[in-house]
Amino acid sequence: MEVESAPTSELLCYKNQNNNNGTALGHKEVTAAAAEEDGDGDLQEEEAGGRTSRYGYAGGDDPDVAETNNGNGLPQVEDFDDDELEQVYRTVDSQRSATVQWMDDDEIERLDLSLSIDPTQIVFNRVDSADIIYQAKRKKCKLVGKYVMGDVLGEGSYGKVKEVLDSETLSRRAVKILTKRKLRRIPNGEQNVRREIKLLRTLHHRNVIELLDVLYNEEKQKMYLIMEYCVGGLQEMLDSVPPERKLPMHQAHDYFVQLLDGLEYLHGRGIIHKDIKPGNLLLTLDHTLKISDYGVAEALDEFAPSDECTTGQGSPAFQPPEIANGHDVFSGYKVDIWSTGVTLYNITTGLYPYEGDNIYKLLENIGKCKWVAPDWLESRLADLLTNILQEDPARRFSLQQIRQHEWFRCAPVATCPLVPIPPLKGDALRRSTVLPYLEAHHYEAERDLANVYFTEHDINGATSATADSPFPILCLQRS
């Protein structure tokens, strides 16, 4: 009978410390379909007495272990029926209770698990993952220009946003990291980024995100936009209060007033944002609102006779009827005003004035413009929203009319606490993510991170640990 040797990759060996003999199990299943697919004409399957030559077992003292095929050092394969094979599995399973052995770094480095060694000497022990001891990952301090990089704050279609520290002023900043490779995949990606940089360089207002610096890395084809640091966004805050996903009226009123201040500044400089929505409204630690993301914004010509625009690229749910109906020309300012109305309705009710099962149905519903304020909505707010969400842009409220409205001028009384800015990765105080990198860089020798180890128990305990220390480190010191 022709004997087939099991490939090295398919040998699993278990060793019990109480038994000096190793037990090896080789498993090779061959089907006619697999043989045909692989195109291997030499692969044969023999059947004798209802048994198939596809399972092999070699005990520690079995003389077959010494026999090999083709000089490759692998044990030969024997035949087993189902009962014998089941006994083999039971034997192997009974030897899986091996204890964990400590191996230091030098011993691990000396291990050579390449295919060149005798596979009968390879030992695998089944252990509980919670008992595995890990070595703490070193935090590498990385600088881009004068900025020390921290952890990722968020990620969008254009790239990642990380926290950075200005090494000269020690100010917390945020950096938007853009790669040319990713921008080329996005329609008008590079054009939108250039437009955003050009606009942001000219904008300086309390409620408009400020661009502080732009760095280029030609070798890595990366662009770094250094901006004001914000601890969260309005959409993130709404998502943190399910199922209503809305804010207290007095808190929503405060944010809406700030939104109008920033929008009035932009319109005064001839800039139409085109994508006002909670996801593009960021917040600082003191709840100052910042209008961000100017990728689809448009700057009107200084001598333009009107605010007419011809392109609308904002988020569908926040677009006005004139864009939903495909008008070629429309008022840019009134587009932004409509979006502020949808935003106000969303943050006060958790709903949208128009919805749809898909984008086509959504735009169809917006185009029909049959929204009526619900009866349960506060009367003054309902009146303001009705005048903002007018189908005819000429009848739609202007910024000045919104400011003169009773709901805008009379802030609602605070009847409940503010919704807090949600914590970042479990840190409610939003501590700087840059400091651990600086600590690792300056005190690495003193702390000797090479001897800091931890287990899954420590990782699970970290989520419930108190955050009294700015750098809580749960670890298992090597004895």
From TrEMBL:
PROSITE patterns: PROTEIN_KINASE_ATP, PROTEIN_KINASE_DOM, PROTEIN_KINASE_ST. The keyword Magnesium applies. InterPro entries: Kinase-like_dom_sf, LKB1_c, Prot_kinase_dom, Protein_kinase_ATP_BS, Ser/Thr_kinase_AS. One of its GO terms (molecular function) is ATP binding. Residues 32-78 are annotated as: Disordered. Its EC number is 2.7.11.1. It comes from the Eukaryota. It catalyses: L-threonyl-[protein] + ATP = O-phospho-L-threonyl-[protein] + ADP + H(+); L-seryl-[protein] + ATP = O-phospho-L-seryl-[protein] + ADP + H(+). SUPFAM superfamilies: Protein kinase-like (PK-like). It is found in: Cytoplasm; Nucleus. SMART domains: S_TKc. Signal peptide: none annotated. Residues 147-408 form the Protein kinase domain. Residues 35-47 have a biased composition (Acidic residues). Belongs to the protein kinase superfamily. CAMK Ser/Thr protein kinase family. LKB1 subfamily. This is Serine/threonine-protein kinase STK11. The lineage of its organism: Eukaryota, Metazoa, Ecdysozoa, Arthropoda, Hexapoda.
